[in-house]
Structures are given as structure tokens and as C-alpha cells.
């Protein structure tokens, strides 16, 4: 077998490994390299994209390192004689030009496919929740409900002393319609592996829309991921995912006039946030005043 054939086979094997592994779904935590798995179907797809891309990069990197090591050992200096020089190698040049383009095309395909799936909107979601961001807190509105105090939809709003809790059902398609009352905010739940900037004036509640299907029950911190002003760091919220029966019982309790705290307690959930807590504004303001004196 000629040297040219050997190089072509090595490149071909590297390409085959990269293309094959880039489509794999690897869920083992030891292969995540710090990337969380997430709690939604969409997060699982992004996790697979990350793992596949990383493995493909490692395969290409190992192939390159192997070729460098081979060249360094095979063609190391053995004396004063100058080795035979090769000015052009057309087959090899074609291989190392075409192979990277193929790898990039495959990674681009998987990236676009994942993005389209993550941003896909269903015609009839199971649950719709309106999210209103403002300086510096959140309001969560359940449009398909009616509270006991005037016929408005049930809503939860945070304050400087209360973390707003967004209650969602598991195993349901949830549509979030985001709107901002002032500046650009960003809705971010780390366990979703997703964030969406909330741009005011950009067809609030229509263009700022995404959907998820949550698969795990629990309490998960949410944050604003866009620097939006003085108290941006205080703009936290909590996502509380519960089963469908508890979710319906929670909304029924809210429609009967119970507060968020009491409605959560009625379904056996903690009434206060457990994943994050309000920061002490008075202490911060006192520290700022003291530093200015």
C-alpha cells in the first residue's frame, strides 16, 4: 500500500468517525464535559448537539495530532542528507480541502435542525403563559383563567421582598409569550438550556415566543440574563414544575382567591421560593449610602 493511500484512508476514517459521532445521542454525565442535561425535551436535543459536536471535534483533533506525530517520527532528521522534496500532492490537497467542508456542512445541518426544533411552535399548545418583564421583576399571567376579584386572569408578580413563582405542568407543551414593559430583558432558566431576549416594541408577546415540554418535577431558578439596569442582579424568579393534577388544583385555588403562597401550600408545595431568595435591598442601599459619605 502506498503512502498516499495510507493518508487517504486515515483521513477517510477520521471523517467517518466525525460524521457518525456528531449524530449520536450521548446522555452520560461523564461525557457532558460540564454541559448540563436539562429538564425539557428541547434541552435534551441541545445536549445531544453539544455532545455530538464535541466528539466530532475530538475525532478530528486526534486525527490531526496522529498525523503530526506520524510526520514528526517518520520524517525526523537522521543525518545531513536532505530528504526528497515534494512540491505538490494533488490528491492530498483535494482531501484536506473537501473534508473540512463536509464536516462543516454536517455540523451546520445538525445545528440548524436542532435550532428549528427548539424554536418550533405548535398549532395548539396545552398551556399558554404570558411573561411580563419590567424593572426589576417578573409577572406571570395565565390567560385561560379568571380570578375571583374582578374577572382578570390569574397572575403572579414579584416584588423586592418576594420571588415570583412560575408554576408549570410536566409532560405538557407550554408556550411562553414574553413581553417587556421598558428595556431589554432576557428570560433564562438554566435547566431549560435556553434563554430568550425580551425586546420591547418587537411585537411583544408575538415574536418573543417559545415552547418547552418539561419532563421533571422540581424547583428551578430563573434569571434575567440581560443587563437591564441598577437592580438587574435582583431580577430572579422560580419555575415550579408539578404534575398535571397538582397544576390544575393550583389554578383552581388561585381562581378561588388564594394567593400564590396559599395555593402552593394547598397542593403540598412550599409556598416560598426554594431555589433562590430575595436580596436585601435595604442593606445594599445602606452600604451604598455609607460609601458615598
Q: Please give the radius of gyration in angstroms.
A: 27 Å
Topology, number of strands: 10
Strand order of the largest sheet: 3-2-1-5-8
Kindly estimate the percentage of residues that lie in beta strands according to DSSP: 15-25%
**Under CATH, the topology of the largest domain is which?**
Immunoglobulin-like
Q: Low-confidence parts lasting 5 or more residues at pLDDT below 50?
A: 13-28
Element-by-element helix/strand order: HHHEEEEEEEEEEHHH
Helix segment tally: 6
User: Mean pLDDT, nearest integer?
Assistant: 83
Number of domains: 2
- Please name the fourth-level CATH homologous superfamily of the largest domain: Cupredoxins -  blue copper proteins
So what's the CATH class of the largest domain?
A: Mainly Beta
Which descriptors would you attach to this protein?
single chain, 293 residues, alpha+beta, Immunoglobulin-like, 2 domains, five-stranded mixed β-sheet, 10 strands
Amino acid at each position: 500500500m502506498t503512502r498516499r493511500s495510507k493518508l487517504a484512508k486515515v483521513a477517510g476514517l477520521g471523517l467517518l468517525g466525525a460524521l457518525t459521532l456528531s449524530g449520536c445521542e450521548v446522555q452520560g454525565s461523564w461525557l457532558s464535559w460540564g454541559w448540563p442535561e436539562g429538564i425539557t425535551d428541547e434541552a435534551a436535543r441541545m445536549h445531544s448537539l453539544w455532545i455530538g459536536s464535541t466528539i466530532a471535534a475530538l475525532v478530528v483533533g486526534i486525527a490531526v495530532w496522529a498525523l503530526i506525530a506520524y510526520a514528526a517520527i517518520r520524517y525526523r532528521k537522521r543525518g545531513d542528507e536532505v530528504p526528497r522534496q515534494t512540491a505538490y500532492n494533488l490528491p492530498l490537497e483535494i482531501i484536506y480541502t473537501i473534508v473540512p467542508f463536509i464536516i462543516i456542512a454536517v455540523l451546520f445541518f445538525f445545528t440548524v435542525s436542532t435550532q428549528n426544533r427548539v424554536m418550533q411552535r405548535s398549532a395548539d399548545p396545552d398551556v399558554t403563559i404570558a411573561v411580563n418583564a419590567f424593572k426589576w421583576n417578573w409577572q406571570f399571567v395565565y390567560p385561560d383563567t379568571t380570578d375571583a376579584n374582578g374577572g382578570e386572569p390569574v397572575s403572579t408578580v414579584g416584588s423586592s421582598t418576594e420571588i415570583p413563582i412560575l408554576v408549570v405542568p410536566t409532560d405538557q407543551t407550554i408556550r411562553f409569550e414574553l413581553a417587556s414593559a421598558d428595556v431589554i430583558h432576557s428570560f433564562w432558566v438554566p435547566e431549560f438550556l435556553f434563554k430568550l431576549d425580551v425586546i420591547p416594541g418587537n411585537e411583544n408577546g408575538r415574536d418573543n415566543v417559545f415552547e418547552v415540554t418539561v419532563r421533571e418535577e422540581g424547583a428551578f431558578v430563573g434569571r434575567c440574563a440581560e443587563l437591564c439596569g441598577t437592580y438587574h442582579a435582583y431580577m430572579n424568579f422560580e419555575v415550579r414544575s408539578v404534575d398535571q393534577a397538582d397544576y390544575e388544583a393550583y389554578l383552581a385555588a388561585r381562581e378561588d382567591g388564594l394567593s400564590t403562597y396559599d395555593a402552593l401550600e394547598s397542593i403540598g408545595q412550599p409556598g416560598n421560593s426554594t431555589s433562590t431568595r430575595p436580596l436585601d435591598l435595604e442593606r445594599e442601599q445602606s452600604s451604598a449610602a455609607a460609601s458615598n459619605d
